[in-house]
UniProtKB/TrEMBL annotation:
InterPro entries: PRELI/MSF1_dom, Slowmo/Ups
One Gene Ontology CC term in the entry: mitochondrial intermembrane space
PRELI/MSF1 domain: residues covered: 2-170
Native source organism of the sequence: Odynerus spinipes
Record's protein name: PRELI/MSF1 domain-containing protein
Alphabetical keyword list: Coiled coil
A Pfam family it matches: PRELI
UniProt feature coiled coil, ranges: 192-219
Length: 225
């Protein structure tokens, strides 16, 4: 069974500003889970810009998920179409690692808001499914919740980048960011989880470095015996 998730987000910056920010939205303080992004191809065809990028993200999982996912990073292919005439930016992304455990296909459309031409509406659609017998429902539910939290981090991080790029517009935008109590609770929970994953990653790196140092010391000791 496929889980479907969608949401709309308004960025209080105009479409051209959002498109400019889209290409440099990483790194930012709210998206430390994004490790790298590389452009694979880019071409202009029929007046549209077609791009393909490879993103690497951390992929922390609960204890029960460690039997299906051995590494804490995932590779994602993102393809985008920028149409300056229609003023739309459409992206399609999918993971190509661990896609048996969980596959996520996502479509995102950035367009001029119907409510205000100085704003940008973002519509996200995502399909999540798993092929792990006996665990698919739990994995899909976990994926849906993880995606929802990642969208919060994405919005916070993107607003941060746009605010740095266009500070005058940001001053006007802040008056529209009226978060409800439930929204703030979700944001705090999401950022706390992000901090925990960051600390876990650092701890793993320290353990790896210590092990390598220990192995090297043993190797050198053996050379003198």
């Amino acid at each position: 069974m496929v889980k479907y998730f969608e949401e709309n987000t308004t960025f209080y910056f105009d479409w051209k500003q959002v498109v400019q920010g889209f290409w440099i939205k990483y790194p930012n303080p709210y998206s430390s889970h994004v490790l790298s992004e590389d452009t694979i191809s880019r071409e202009v065809k029929d007046g549209k810009l077609y791009s393909k990028r490879l993103l690497t993200k951390t992929n922390g999982v609960p204890k029960w998920g460690e039997m299906f996912v051995k590494k804490n990073s995932v590779k994602i292919v993102e393809e985008s179409i920028l149409d300056p005439e229609a003023k739309t930016l459409t992206t399609y992304s999918r993971n190509f690692t661990y896609n048996k455990a969980m596959s996520v296909v996502e479509k995102v459309v950035y367009r001029v808001s119907d409510e205000n031409p100085s704003w940008t509406m973002v519509h996200r659609s995502a399909w999540i499914w798993s092929r792990v017998l006996g665990f698919s429902k739990a994995i899909e539910a976990f994926g849906q919740d993880r995606l929802r939290k990642n969208y919060i981090k994405m919005s916070l991080g993107f607003n941060y980048i746009l605010g740095c790029m266009f500070p005058q517009t940001a001053q006007l935008a802040t008056s529209h960011l009226n978060y409800q109590p439930d929204d703030l609770t979700m944001i705090k929970s999401t950022l706390a989880e992000e901090l925990q994953h960051s600390l876990q990653d650092k701890a793993e790196k320290v353990k790896d470095a210590a092990k390598k140092a220990s192995d090297l010391a043993k190797q050198k000791t053996g050379q003198f015996m």
